[in-house]
Amino acid sequence: MLLDLLHFDFLRHTFLTGLLIGIIAPLLGSFLVVRRLSLLADALSHVTLAGIAFGLFIEKQFLFAFSPLYAGMGFSIVGAVLIEKLRSVYQAYQEIGIPIILSGGVGLSVIFIALANGFNTDLFGYLFGSVSAVSKGDFYLIIVITIIVLGTIFLFYKELLTLSFDEEHAVTSGIHAKRIHFLFIILTALVIAASIRIVGVLLVSALMSLPVAAAMRLAGSFKQLIALSIMFAEIAVIAGLVSGYYLSIPPGGTIVVIAIILLLLTFIKDAFTKKGGAQVHE
Known about the structure:
The protein is mostly helical.
């Protein structure tokens, strides 16, 4: 595979994209898990699927080149905005916006998949990931998203950290909680849309939560949680891409299975060391 990486551009793009996704997905996932918003990634991934199916439908209906990835990204951002709007409508039950948007995403997906002549090879790749699906344009787009995510986290790390552990204190200390949260879910939408080429839209939320769950068993601070989450995610992504290349299977499934194995190993370690439940501090 290393020799093929030198000869085939699409393999280089896929491998480098996987490495970038292995950084930004668990990075945002660390904040999602700590804020108990893990299901947000599930909701936005299903909305992204609706956008991809819509893009495939447009390609079929009007017979012109249109990247479903961009349609999926647009739908994901709209879904994130709607979830934030529903949070303000249902202030006493803010989490209800997540299942509402998730259900809407599933419904639209079914409709657009049917209109686009059902399942095909392209849709299968979007659902479960593909080793050969990342184009040069996709690769450059994911580089831009990675720069945006890393830059935003660097600039607003203290605000996001305070919101994650003590939202009331964040508000009283003058942090614009609504603006920061809105910015955060937009970033989450972008990362989910960017990750579907490698992991697949149905499995992308696992890459944002499973490495974090494993890291929580070992980390003593939030920075350690981020570092370990990224390390576990990179192990899972590299193993998934290599297995996908040699076994001709979608990499998404292997990525998730490896992430689960890493999580189980942390439980085994706890059993031998008699360590209790995970507790992460700022």
